[in-house]
């Protein structure tokens, strides 16, 4: 199946979507993006693009941080994304990536007086972390960027060097994923996921003031835990050692879904297996992301390949 792009206001095969090597975003990371899942429901032969509006809303926020204006409204982006998905011909789970970037072929580091452009691509993405068997993590020797450096509430391309340093260090040391701490040593998040602890029957997760990306899966999990399991989430600063004594830990993210954490820094978390609350949330999430729970219809953008474009 050829991957497809919406680029320069046209739909085209990904192979035809090219940019010049002087593009400003390449050396300076002056771009932002989203990662959105289109979940294929084979029983109903349709996609559920999960929380697409929230993803585009976050992209608009990221663009504001980078002084960029997007040429379409959120609704127009949703419509274009649906059309791209239908044109791609996929009938399996897909990963959709819109990216806005400073497109001037110009040298000189800045945000102002530059042209900008946006594209959307659709491709497949196998499970990013092992959600069935769980993952082993280390705390990273790299610290998460601070709001005074590059605002982490934006999904800004340049920030991902911070994530890449941590991910590679973790994997080259034999772990699956890194947990980054803030400058002052509090728990922040994974290289591309938010983190939750289950402790004393409640969920615990770092707050937005601790330099996390405000994850859409994080928000989904907090709402499902509250509405479906009656479990509250406390958003507060989390010490590193709280991870070691937690009953359960898991990551959340669009690419990772809900990934159980079995071990951190060579210490088993809880029983060292997948925790009960984590497993319940995984089950709830698997259903909701297919668009099957009418209670959460606001989260679903249903696209049927059979419907006329
Ligand atoms: N933190 C970082 C650094 C990420 O890249 C992501 C993935 N977008 C997340 C957290 C999780 O966010 P979401 O649930 O919106 O995908």
Note down, in words, how this protein is organized:
This protein is α+β, with helices and mostly antiparallel strands. It is built from seven helices and 17 strands. The strands form two sheets. Strands 8, 9, 10, 11, 12, 13, 14, 15 and 16 form a nine-stranded mixed β-sheet that branches. The chain is globular and about 50 Å long. The two termini are 19 Å apart. The mean pLDDT is 96. The structure holds 4'-deoxy-4'-aminopyridoxal-5'-phosphate. Residues 35, 155, 163, 189, 192-194, 213, 215-218, 252-254 line the site of 4'-deoxy-4'-aminopyridoxal-5'-phosphate.
What are the defining features of this structure?
309 residues; D-amino Acid Aminotransferase, Chain A, domain 1; D-amino Acid Aminotransferase, Chain A, domain 2; 8-stranded antiparallel β-sheet; 17 strands; binds 4'-deoxy-4'-aminopyridoxal-5'-phosphate
How big is the Rg? Answer: 19 Å
**How many E strands?**
17
Q: State the major sheet.
A: 9 strands, mixed
CATH superfamily of the largest domain: D-amino Acid Aminotransferase, subunit A, domain 2
Question: Average pLDDT, to the nearest integer?
Answer: 96
Shape call: globular
**How do the SSEs run, as a string of H and E?**
EEHEEEHHEEEHEEEEHEHEEEHE
Number of helices: 7
Overall number of domains: 2
* CATH level 1 name of the largest domain: Alpha Beta
Structural class: alpha+beta
What is the second-level CATH architecture of the largest domain?
Alpha-Beta Barrel
Question: What proportion strand?
Answer: 25-35%
Low-confidence stretches: none
Ligands and ions found? 4'-deoxy-4'-aminopyridoxal-5'-phosphate
CATH third-tier fold name of the largest domain: D-amino Acid Aminotransferase, Chain A, domain 2
Terminal CA distance reads 19 Å
Into which percent range does the helicity of residues fall?
25-40%
């Amino acid at each position: 199946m050829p991957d497809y792009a919406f680029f320069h206001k046209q739909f085209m095969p990904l192979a035809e979507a090219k940019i010049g090597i002087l593009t400003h975003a390449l050396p300076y990371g002056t771009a932002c993006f989203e990662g959105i899942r289109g979940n294929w429901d084979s029983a109903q032969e349709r996609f559920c693009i999960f929380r697409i509006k929230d993803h585009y809303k976050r992209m608009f926020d990221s663009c504001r941080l980078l002084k960029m204006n997007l040429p379409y409204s959120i609704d127009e982006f949703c419509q274009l994304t649906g059309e791209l998905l239908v044109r791609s011909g996929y009938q399996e789970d897909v990963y959709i990536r819109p990216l806005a970037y400073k497109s001037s072929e110009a040298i000189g580091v800045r945000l102002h007086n530059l042209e900008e452009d946006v594209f959307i691509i659709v491709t497949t993405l196998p499970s990013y972390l092992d959600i069935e068997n769980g993952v082993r993590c280390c705390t990273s020797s790299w610290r998460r960027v601070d709001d005074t450096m590059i605002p982490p509430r934006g999904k800004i391309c340049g920030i991902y060097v911070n994530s890449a340093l941590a991910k590679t260090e973790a994997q080259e040391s034999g772990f699956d994923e890194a947990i980054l701490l803030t400058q002052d040593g509090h728990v922040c998040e994974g290289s591309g996921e938010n983190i939750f602890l289950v402790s004393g029957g409640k969920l615990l997760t770092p707050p937005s003031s601790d330099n996390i990306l405000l994850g859409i899966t994080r928000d989904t999990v907090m709402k499902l835990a509250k509405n479906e399991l009656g479990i509250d989430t406390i958003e507060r600063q989390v010490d590193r050692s709280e991870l070691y004594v937690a009953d359960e830990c898991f990551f959340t993210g669009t690419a990772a879904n809900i990934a159980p954490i079995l071990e951190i820094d060579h210490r088993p978390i809880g029983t060292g297996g997948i925790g009960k609350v984590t497993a319940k949330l995984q089950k709830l999430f698997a259903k909701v992301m297919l668009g099957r729970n009418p209670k959460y219809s606001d989260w679903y953008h249903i696209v049927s390949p059979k419907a006329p474009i």
